[in-house]
């Protein structure tokens, strides 16, 4: 029994020695004891894995290790030729400030810190100056501040999976990427960025960007990048897994949809089509209004501005997907084209202020009047407002009608129908108080029944008197004729005045 026991102890001892021999050179615990300040001034010596570095380089330049290779907490591994690559795990703010500068002092060019939980990462710090590959991944970085120094050698920057938002990444003053002329890979995947880091792609350089897993990046930004830069310059890593957020406006309520960036189509045609608006040479300006998914493609909805062009008619042949048209300050007299021209099919906002339009009858039954969001026809020559044309438009709150500065013809009917209609739809007609009556009768909503409906009431009374009088005369006439007939039958003569009447041709006939 005793021998077995001793053998076991021997075995354990041997195991311990073996363990020390194998692992001790690789492990040097970071002195984490705050009671002993002296050792903290020495950075913990890095452990060494003399391996070729290439297998740890993504895309040839991005130094990246996975968690299974993590050194113990508080220690960094160096590897590769010249020990130039540094790998650390589970780093906190204290370690970043106290020890990392010492570790990076000796000509290090590659750094990967996995799971850094730090308050702020100051990229302008001199310790990062020599790095060509810098990765802080799978951690929690509260803020990235500073700006990489001018002519930084950095070629790859990986800040994947750090719970970053755009506010944390790019304050408006400091653009961290402004001077990264050598940057060819940016991995900011698996964060929650809401703005595309546009400062990156303005330089005329090839760059690979990984923004997968940032689903709230607006599609507009991607489209801008694809349109303004030569699209071959920006390459999206994980292209199929990169999504963008599309603000969908279904007339009045908004929703967000996440779409694959593959659905974004560059709309180079818009300006060409803008020049094809009829009449020619009026130089309307066209601008992208917003994006929407139409037929499985992210489509540019277009806004057209033809204000102050001395137009006498509505323009036609608008660019495809025109949703907004401004033709204010012209001399337009008819809205016929809205229903007749097919290019008005997607129109949701029409602004025809300061024109000469007399009525809105031509909009009856058009697609526009059934779907509009904004219809502004202020300062025109409307004489009446045919409310039935608009009858279905305000079923939901949201669409807005603007009619100020029209002087309409007001009578009792206006008071009886238009005024209550305005009061009922006041939310949809914000300027309802500014619809005026002509002849100085004041705003329509201030019309008083007794002023505009007085005369018609008198007239109807008068007509009743006339009708009563006529009935009376008729009754008298019938009684007189009956009396005459009776006298004629019984006494054989015709009473006055029938006997004094001259004979008429029909009397001969009767006899
Ligand atoms: C950046 O880090 C993430 C998370 O660790 C990793 O999945 C990705 O491959 C890295 N990107 C590059 C380009 O090395
Ligand atoms: C970690 O890296 C090794 C190669 O270095 C690879 O074989 C392994 O699959 C990786 N593990 C994960 C979880 O990616
Ligand atoms: C790497 O560092 C270790 C000490 O940590 C040193 O012994 C070794 O010579 C270094 N290798 C190179 C190639 O510099
Ligand atoms: C990341 O590091 C923090 C401490 O710095 C630690 O509490 C946490 O468990 C680590 N996360 C993982 C996934 O290891
Ligand atoms: C660090 O780089 C400098 C010049 O850039 C060089 O003189 C020095 O020898 C390098 N040191 C090491 C340890 O490689
Ligand atoms: C990440 O940091 C934020 C802000 O410092 C903190 O609120 C949050 O709890 C942290 N998350 C984790 C998983 O540590
Ligand atoms: C930038 O990269 C080029 C080669 O791609 C290299 O010649 C140049 O030295 C680099 N610039 C800096 C500042 O490292
Ligand atoms: C991300 O950061 C926010 C604060 O900005 C924090 O409330 C949240 O817990 C963090 N999420 C994770 C997974 O760390
Ligand atoms: C990401 O950002 C969006 C928009 O700012 C926010 O609604 C969402 O909750 C965020 N998601 C996470 C996981 O923080
Ligand atoms: C990813 O996109 C490529 C084209 O860029 C396509 O050929 C491939 O089928 C897509 N993969 C998936 C899983 O959708
Ligand atoms: C439109 O632009 C062309 C060329 O720029 C110019 O010749 C023409 O006068 C412009 N027309 C109007 C109505 O401004
Ligand atoms: C267009 O209307 C403006 C005022 O609205 C007027 O001054 C101008 O003479 C009109 N032009 C034509 C061609 O009728």
UniProtKB/TrEMBL annotation:
Tree of life domain: Eukaryota
Entry keyword Hydrolase: no
InterPro entries named in the record: LRR_dom_sf, SLRP
Sorted UniProt keywords: Leucine-rich repeat, Membrane, Repeat, Transmembrane, Transmembrane helix
Residue ranges of the TM segments: 7-24
Protein name: Protein halfway
